[in-house]
Amino acid sequence: MKLSVIIALVILALSILAVSQILVGLIVANCHQLNSLDRQAPLNNHRFSVVIPAFNEEKLIVRTIVSVLRQNYSNFEVIAVDDGSTDKTGAILDRLAQKYPKLQVVHQANQGKSTAINTAVRNWATGDLVMVLDADSYLNKDALTKMARRFDDPNVIGMSANVRITQPHNFLEWVQKVEYLLGYRLKGAEEILGIEYIIGGIGSTFRRKAMLEVGIYDTDSITEDIDFTMKMITHFGNRKKQFGYADDVIAYTPPVKNFRQLLKQRYRWKHGRFKALFKHRQVIFNWNRKYTKSLTFWKLPKVFFEELIMLIDPLLMLWIMGIVLHYADFATVISILGLYYIFAIATFITEDLKLKERIKLMLTAPFAYLVLYVINIIDWLSLVRCLIHMKRIITNADKTAKWLPVDR
């Protein structure tokens, strides 16, 4: 069999797999969203400790704090940990604490984000639920109410929020907005299929008792949220205990403004994910009945397979474009663009968006694949950099949880 035929068959198989994943993901995600509509209002019996670790966040910290204090759910406290900020963050928090009794401010020497969260959870939190919120992000006013509903189920241990990008102003920021909407759309499917393994840091919520049982956050990771989720899953399993996604709990975060900073952010994410997976590699291909087989034998191994495919993605793209140009057959390209157009439309129609924002996104939908390919390029560069440092990642040589902020 000729090499060209083999490559064509491989590309076809990968395309069918990608299409199947998107279609199944959309169908299951819609079921998850319908299930969310059936949830009744909680009885206010959960107490939240909203933990906000902060380092040099003077520009946005007020908006963050106020968004929590204005929640329509009454049973909560806010614990802001100033981790040795060198700007006015500490002073701003102290002024806010004088005005708002629900706000407690903790000052400590700079030790990193994980340590800041641990300080709040171990020494200050009184709630049965802990929500961690980044100091540059903010919540919809009903976020705690809707998150509380999820924890009426005693088997729920951790839930991620539906994170959206705030108002974009340039092309790269619009790319991130579309990416977040499409990416989070599929997280509902991950919960139902039992393959959720990342409870993202913005608005992530856990039972405090469970957090204390596993020893809270480790302080050797630059992506503390991925590492902590894997740590919780390793300990509790994910078959009887649930780690999921609250699609109706909306949190907002500012986009990264330029290519260099976005590359810095995505390298940190990819580096941290590799590190967490190698650190908790005993879960992969694990037959223990406390884990779903869909996680241990499908999702986690597939992460490495997808990274391998991403590594050769430029070659596959060049091959496809060569075939298209050589035979003047644009059916493949049109099919790919059409698939992502349908995916985008299905996402933008069902999301709760303002009319003006919905119109802009619907106009963007035909270019969804091209928009996401910008992120692919950044992810590819991040992957190459990770491979260069893979020995240090596997051996956990960089034991640090230092702040690595990007310009907003």
From TrEMBL:
<comment type="similarity">
    <text>Belongs to the glycosyltransferase 2 family.</text>
</comment>
<feature type="domain" description="Glycosyltransferase 2-like">
    <location>
        <begin position="49"/>
        <end position="211"/>
    </location>
</feature>
<keyword id="KW-0808">Transferase</keyword>
<feature type="transmembrane region" description="Helical">
    <location>
        <begin position="303"/>
        <end position="324"/>
    </location>
</feature>
<keyword id="KW-0472">Membrane</keyword>
<dbReference type="InterPro" id="IPR001173">
    <property type="entry name" value="Glyco_trans_2-like"/>
</dbReference>
<protein>
    <submittedName>
        <fullName>Glycosyltransferase family 2 protein</fullName>
    </submittedName>
</protein>
<keyword id="KW-0328">Glycosyltransferase</keyword>
<feature type="transmembrane region" description="Helical">
    <location>
        <begin position="361"/>
        <end position="383"/>
    </location>
</feature>
<dbReference type="InterPro" id="IPR029044">
    <property type="entry name" value="Nucleotide-diphossugar_trans"/>
</dbReference>
<keyword id="KW-0812">Transmembrane</keyword>
<feature type="transmembrane region" description="Helical">
    <location>
        <begin position="330"/>
        <end position="349"/>
    </location>
</feature>
<feature type="transmembrane region" description="Helical">
    <location>
        <begin position="6"/>
        <end position="29"/>
    </location>
</feature>
<dbReference type="Pfam" id="PF00535">
    <property type="entry name" value="Glycos_transf_2"/>
</dbReference>
<keyword id="KW-1133">Transmembrane helix</keyword>
